[in-house]
Write a structure and sequence with these properties.
Blueprint (H helix, E strand, L loop, with lengths): L1 E6 L4 H11 L4 E7 L8 H4 L11 E2 L3 H4 L2
Parallel strand pairs: 1-2, 2-3
Length: 67
Amino acid sequence: MIRAAIVGATGYVAEELYRLLLSHPGARVVEAVSAGSSGKKLEDVYPSLRGFGTPVLADYDENRLIS
């Protein structure tokens, strides 16, 4: 299983990347980073992602991302 993190998760490209990773059977998004929307669920920023179990957006923390 590939564990993926999306940095800049509220940008247009990140929304499309999240959709692609959702459909990939060998990948799982475990972290989504957005300085401006930290604490919100990704589906609150992109309502079209409701029901997909989106992560809570976090602040950038390099140490957490490499673990």
